[in-house]
Amino acid sequence: MPVQLITIVLFVFACGACExxxxxxxxxxxxxxxxxxxxxxxxxxxLIPFTDxxxxxxxxxxxxxxxxxxxxxxxxxxxxxxPHGAGNSIAEGRLKYSGGGNLEEVFIERQTPGRPMxxxxxxxxxxxxxxxxxxxLEFNNMDDKGPSPDGFYRLSCHQWDASGNGKxxxxxxxxxxxxxxxxxxxxxxxxxxxxxxxKTRQEPGELIPELQGR
Length: 214
Prior knowledge:
Blueprint: E1 4-8, H1 16-19, E2 24-26, E3 33-35, E4 41-43, E5 47-49, H2 52-57, E6 70-72, E7 76-82, E8 94-98, E9 101-108, E10 113-119, E11 123-127, E12 136-140, E13 142-143, E14 146-147, E15 154-155, E16 159-160, E17 166-170, E18 173-178, E19 186-189, H3 190-197
Antiparallel strand pairs: 1-8, 2-3, 3-4, 5-19, 6-10, 6-19, 7-9, 7-18, 8-9, 10-11, 11-12, 12-15, 13-14, 16-17, 17-18
């Protein structure tokens, strides 16, 4: 039986189709970027990957992780199968019907902002929906062999299959991360990091004693 869309309760996150065919648009300022979608705002400067080296460069401590605005580099799609008739309990995401029952799908568009709720040197937990306090996704810089060679913080799943789909917990339920969700990694505003962690002081200079008082 072909999958049929029963209802769309809510696109939980910024959906490009809702506002624009492109998730970002340049404004008149040369280096500013406007992030489109429900959480529309302007980013000062460019978005760059958040990596181990960047964290070391800015000397970012664990306690500082929750002060940083993160974004996802690529779309993330989460799905889970529901018992038939459970659709009325769905409060977020979009609901589809297949021959096997209901499917709940949560979609996060590329460059959607996420609020860090906690962080360590190897991982950070982001929340993308303020109305779901317990719904976070983990991103870490580890792979199955240890620290990732490029130092990127990618979407974390407790199980991956050969096709690149993973299983993770979201809002108290197990979802499948599908459609190349594994390719998503974290981005940050470079100018935002500079404002948070670079402290610049201009020294006034000092005259030799013979010239002081002139």
